[in-house]
Automatic annotation (TrEMBL):
It comes from the Bacteria. Signal peptide: none annotated. Keywords: DNA-binding, Pyridoxal phosphate, Transcription, Transcription regulation. This is GntR family transcriptional regulator. SMART domains: HTH_GNTR (SM00345). It comes from Glutamicibacter mysorens. InterPro entries: Aminotransferase_I/II_large, HTH_trans_reg/aminotransferase, PyrdxlP-dep_Trfase, PyrdxlP-dep_Trfase_major, Tscrpt_reg_HTH_GntR, WH-like_DNA-bd_sf, WH_DNA-bd_sf.
Length: 466
C-alpha cells in the first residue's frame, strides 16, 4: 500500500476555495483526486495531524472532511494505516484496449499486468468535465438525440483544432465517430471496393487492419525501419501494387514511435497522388509528444486526397469512445453516407465533454505528459539494468517502446509470462507473422504496475533465451 505525504497532498490540492466551508472544499478536492486517479485506490492519506500542519487548517476541518470522505465511500479507516483512499465498490477490472491476441485482456479477477494496452488513464478533471456537460445536456434532450455527423460544438472545435495546426478546416468537413477504428472503417467503406487492396507499413496498428479487412479489403505490406517510413520503398510499392488506399501513420507511429517531418509528408502525399491512391492518415498519436511539440503540418495539408482520422482515446480518455474524420471537401458526402451506414451517431453527453475539453485542453494534460515522459525514461533505464542485451528505442512521443530483442523469441516470451500480458511483434505484422525480434512495451501504465512487470519479463526472458 502506498502513502501520500501531507506536503505532496498540499501541492495537489492547491488554493482553498473561500466560497464554501473549508471542510467542504477539502472533502470535494480529495474526492476529485481519488475519482480522477491522482490518488490511487488503496493509498493511505496523511494523518490528520500531518494534514493540519501542511494545509494550515484546523483539526476539526480535516477530521470532518475525512469523515465525509468515508461516508461517501471514497475512503475507509484501517487499523495501523489511518484513512485509506478507495473507489466506491473498488476499481473495475478490464477496460484495456483489446488486441487480436485470441482474447480480450485479463480474465475477471485477474491481477495480471496488462501490457497489451497502450493508453493513459483519465486525466484529472474528467469527472468535473462530465458534471459541466450535464448542465448543457438539457438543450439537446428536447430533441430526439440523433446527430449522425456529430453535434455542432464538437465539429466546430475539431475544425478549429485543425485550422490552428495549419490545415484550414470547416465544421462541414468534420464527421464525429465512436472512435478511431470506426473512422478507419468508415473511410475504408467509402474508398475501398470489396476485394481491393490497402497498403500498410509493417509493423502497424493491428486493429486498423482488422477494421479494413472486415469490409473485405485485401492487405499488402511495405516495411518500416527503426528510423521511420521508407519513402522509396513506399513509392515502389505504390507503383507495383496500385492499391486503392494506404494506411499512413506519420505521427509517432504505433508501434515504432517515429515522427515524419514535413518534407517526408509532402513526398509521401505526392507518391499517393501519383498512384491514384487515397491515404487514410491515422493521427491518433499526433498530440502525444513528450519532449518538444513537433513543428509539422497535418499530412492532409499536402494533398486534397488524404482522409485524416483522429481519436480522443489517447489524448483525453478511452472511455469517451469518440473519434472523428477530417474529410476533403469532395469526399465529405461519401464519407458521411459511409459513416451513417454504421450507426446513428455518438453519445451526446460524451461529445459535450470533449467539445469543452478541446476548448480548455486540446491535448494531453501537463501532468499526464510529464508522467509519460518519466515512465518512458524510467523504463529505458530499467531495461538497461535488467535486460542489457535488449535495444529499446527512445521515442519522442507516443505511449510505448519498440524493443529489438537479441533472439527472435517474442512470441515465446509472451507465452512464458504468467502475471504479465504482452503483445509479441507478430501482433503488429501486416502478414500476421514475423517480427519475432521485436516486442512492444507500453509505458502508459501506473509506475507500480511497470515495477511489477519488468522483473517478471526479465526473469521469463532468461528462461526463454536459454
Amino acid at each position: 500500500m502506498g502513502r501520500v505525504t501531507a506536503t505532496a497532498l498540499a501541492g495537489m490540492l492547491g488554493a482553498i476555495d473561500a466560497s464554501m466551508p473549508a471542510y467542504r472544499w477539502l472533502y470535494l478536492a480529495l474526492r476529485a483526486l481519488i475519482a480522477n486517479g491522482r490518488i490511487l485506490h488503496g493509498t493511505a492519506l496523511p494523518s490528520e495531524r500531518d494534514a493540519v500542519a501542511a494545509l494550515g487548517l484546523s483539526r476539526t476541518t480535516v477530521s470532518r472532511a475525512y469523515s465525509e470522505l468515508r461516508d461517501a465511500g471514497y475512503a475507509s479507516a484501517r487499523r495501523g494505516s489511518g484513512t485509506v483512499a478507495q473507489l466506491p465498490g473498488g476499481p473495475v477490472s478490464g477496460g484495456a484496449e483489446p488486441l487480436p491476441l485470441g482474447g480480450f485482456g485479463p480474465v475477471p479477477g485477474s491481477h495480471a499486468v496488462d501490457l497489451t494496452c497502450a493508453a493513459p488513464t483519465a486525466p484529472a478533471g474528467m469527472i468535473a468535465g462530465f458534471e459541466a456537460a450535464l448542465e448543457q445536456l438539457p438543450r439537446y434532450a428536447a430533441g430526439m438525440g440523433y446527430y449522425p455527423l456529430g453535434i455542432e460544438p464538437l465539429r466546430a472545435a475539431l475544425a478549429e483544432h485543425y485550422t490552428r495546426k495549419g490545415l484550414p478546416t470547416s465544421p462541414e468537413q468534420i464527421i464525429v465517430t465512436s472512435g478511431a477504428l470506426s473512422s478507419v472503417a468508415a473511410a475504408g467503406r467509402a474508398v475501398l471496393g470489396r476485394g481491393q487492396t490497402v497498403l500498410a507499413e509493417s509493423p502497424t496498428y493491428p486493429n486498423s487492419l482488422l477494421a479494413l479487412k472486415a469490409h473485405g479489403a485485401r492487405t499488402a505490406a511495405v516495411p518500416i525501419g527503426p528510423e521511420g517510413s521508407d519513402l522509396e520503398q513506399i513509392a515502389d510499392a505504390l507503383q507495383a501494387i496500385s492499391p486503392a488506399a494506404m494506411l499512413c501513420l506519420p505521427d509517432f507511429h504505433n508501434p515504432v514511435g517515429t515522427l515524419l517531418d514535413d518534407a517526408g509528408r509532402e513526398r509521401w502525399a505526392a507518391y499517393l497522388d501519383r498512384a491514384g491512391t487515397v491515404g487514410i492518415v491515422d493521427e491518433t498519436c499526433a498530440e502525444l509528444w513528450l519532449d518538444e511539440r513537433p513543428e509539422v503540418l497535418p499530412m492532409a495539408a499536402f494533398s486534397r486526397n488524404l482522409i485524416s482520422v483522429g481519436s480522443a482515446s489517447k489524448s483525453h480518455w478511452g472511455g469517451l469512445r469518440l473519434g472523428w474524420i477530417r474529410s476533403p471537401r469532395h469526399m465529405a458526402g461519401a464519407l458521411a453516407r459511409s459513416r451513417m451506414s454504421m450507426d446513428l451517431g455518438a453519445p451526446v453527453l460524451e461529445q459535450l465533454v470533449l467539445a469543452n475539453a478541446l476548448a480548455s485542453q486540446p491535448a494531453l494534460s501537463v501532468a499526464t505528459r510529464n508522467g509519460l515522459r518519466e515512465n518512458r525514461d524510467w523504463l529505458i533505464g530499467e531495461l538497461g539494468k535488467l535486460l542489457p542485451d535488449w535495444e529499446p528505442n527512445r521515442p519522442a512521443g507516443g505511449l510505448s517502446l519498440w524493443c529489438h530483442l537479441p533472439q527472435p523469441r517474442s512470441s515465446a516470451l509472451a507465452r512464458r509470462l504468467k502475471g504479465v500480458l504482452l503483445a509479441p511483434g507478430s501482433t503488429f505484422a501486416v502478414e500476421g507473422h514475423g517480427l519475432e525480434h521485436y516486442m512492444r512495451l507500453p509505458f502508459a501504465q501506473d509506475r507500480a504496475q511497470l515495477q511489477q512487470a519488468v522483473p517478471a519479463i526479465a526473469a521469463a526472458w532468461r528462461q526463454v533465451a536459454a
